[in-house]
Design brief:
Strand content: 15-25%
Structural class: alpha+beta
Strand order of the largest sheet: 6-5-4-9-8-7
Number of strands: 9
Oligomer: single chain
Distance between the termini: 44 Å
Shape: elongated
Helix content: 40-55%
Largest sheet: 6 strands, antiparallel
Radius of gyration: 23 Å
Length: 257
């Protein structure tokens, strides 16, 4: 563990509602650091936007929390809001079709499964909240990749190292680019045996009030249960539930293509 990073982040803990501004001397004393060490760490936090320097006069220079923390806090709040809003609808969808339902979001260059509602079938897929996936594997990750802004999407694709988990896993850029075009045309993503053999996954986008795709609503199950006829039922119900979640998040208007 990088001790300098730990010490720097620990300085943020000394700010509170009662002490919104602190001097270099106060922070050095509270943290048992020398002033030169504290100044070096504070300068790094300031450069990254976690702190801002307030100069009341030449003798009174203080630090306060920076706007970067507000940005990060908003992202965390949005994720909690998304889970809170989506979960009742996910439970309803699972009750309707009796297959596992996932909520998937993008985290940098990976997809993360942040919520799950389990089926009561004896035969189930093994997934867990917190699971991470490459963006070319599975319906949820592929959908999130497909709805990224073009420059960001292409930059991520160029960095990908393709690895096959099964015979059906996408293993080259050309096939992935074709899949992205199909997803954007159809408005949903489908996977067959890409992560686990003999499984099917289908995902629809969840939009926020800015008409941005913020998550994928995913249903997954074994091929032996999700035949072509039942797939049409799953698609219809999942699309409707994804739209209901989107509307709860403030989305209004036609889907962007």
């Amino acid at each position: 563990m990088n001790q300098s990073v730990v010490k720097a982040l620990a300085l943020l803990d000394y700010f509170s509602k009662d002490q919104k501004e602190l001097t270099l001397g106060e922070l050095a004393e509270k943290s048992n650091l020398t002033k030169p060490t504290a100044h070096r760490l504070l300068s790094s936090l300031e450069e990254c936007g976690f702190l801002t320097k307030v100069k009341h006069n030449n003798q009174d220079v203080r630090y306060r929390l920076g706007l970067k923390l507000l940005d990060l806090g908003s992202l965390v709040a949005d994720q909690f809001e998304l889970r809170d809003v989506a979960l009742p609808f996910m439970r309803q969808l699972c009750a309707d079709i009796n297959e596992v339902v996932h909520l998937v979001i993008l985290d940098k260059d990976e997809a993360v499964y942040i919520e799950k509602v389990e089926t009561n079938h004896a035969i189930r897929l093994y997934t867990r909240v917190g699971k991470r996936s490459e963006l070319y594997i599975g319906s949820g990750p592929k959908l999130l990749l497909a709805y990224l802004p073009e420059p960001e999407r292409q930059a991520l694709i160029k960095k990908m190292t393709f690895k096959k988990l099964t015979e059906q896993t996408i293993d080259n850029e050309a096939v992935l680019q074709e899949e992205i075009l199909k997803i954007r045309e159809l408005g949903y993503a489908l996977s067959r045996g890409e992560q686990d053999r003999e499984t099917i996954g289908i995902s629809y986008p969840i939009y926020n009030h800015k008409k941005e795709v913020v998550a994928a609503l995913n249903v997954s199950g074994p091929e032996l249960r999700i035949d072509d006829q039942f797939m049409e039922v799953v698609k219809e119900k999942t699309e409707k539930m994804a739209m209901r979640i989107s509307m709860e998040l403030g989305y209004a208007g036609a889907r962007d293509t």
